[in-house]
Design brief:
237 residues; mainly beta; UDP N-Acetylglucosamine Acyltransferase, domain 1; 2 domains; 0% helix
Length: 237
């Protein structure tokens, strides 16, 4: 545990060693900023946020690898009660909602939003302008490309055996290609790929890859039609 010292830049603010804080950063009450964290200019850090937390890993955890310092770029908002781990990278103007949770070695791209109570597990890569709604779980090793929408309560998974495997077996998160849309309450099984501009309806369970522009629904999800030209992202920018 790094040494934490009171800082007069916010009420009850505690700051570790070698922390860099940019210009015009606003702190709410009782924020904790751990060792080595870098906070860019114009950021808003709300009440009870924890920045730069180091992970505690169970024996045999898949979350291995070097952990650097937390990097938060300019004009990011970290909302109340959010926890952002050391080694994460948060792009400019991103918003991390209340009680969101972003693990080590994960990236949240510029202009993206992580909804209230959503989890971005270790080694997740999220592109720019992504919208992750409330209560979403993005499991370790998930890839989310630019302009993806993930509806509330969606769940991704990465382990077909549910921990009944040796260390040589890699975990496989979902791959969400550019501008695809994932409905609320969906479940994506390990390693599935959702193609560019594809649409997965609410409540579906996706067990196989979804082609670009396909519309799928049901349990298990099946393709029912194609996304029309009028619904492509370029029409809605």
């Amino acid at each position: 545990m790094s040494d934490l010292r009171p800082c007069d830049r916010g009420p009850g603010l505690l700051v570790g060693e070698n922390v860099e804080i940019g210009r015009d950063v606003s702190f709410g009450a009782y924020v904790v900023v751990h060792e080595g964290t870098r906070i860019g200019d114009g950021c808003v850090i709300e009440d009870h946020a924890v920045l730069g937390k180091r992970p505690r890993l169970a024996r045999g955890s898949s979350a291995k690898g070097e952990i650097g310092a937390l990097r938060i770029e300019d004009r990011v908002t970290v909302c109340s009660g959010a926890v952002v781990f050391a080694g994460a990278s948060i792009g400019a103007e991103a918003i991390l909602g209340d009680q969101s949770y972003v693990r080590e070695r994960s990236t949240v791209g510029a202009g993206s939003v992580i909804g209230r109570g959503s989890v971005v597990d270790n080694d997740v890569q999220i592109g720019q302008r992504v919208r992750v709604q409330t209560g979403v779980y993005l499991t370790a090793f998930t890839l989310v490309e630019d302009d993806v929408f993930v509806g509330p309560g969606a769940t991704t998974t990465n382990d077909d055996t549910m921990s009944r495997h040796g260390p040589e077996m890699p975990l496989r998160g979902a791959i969400l290609r550019r501008a695809c849309r994932i409905g609320g309450g969906t479940v994506l099984t390990p390693g599935v790929e959702v193609g560019e501009e594809a649409f997965l309806a609410a409540g579906a369970v996706l067990t196989r890859d979804l082609p670009p522009r396909a519309v799928a629904m049901g349990v298990p999800a099946r393709v029912v039609r194609e996304v029309g030209e009028e619904d492509l992202l370029e029409r809605w920018r």
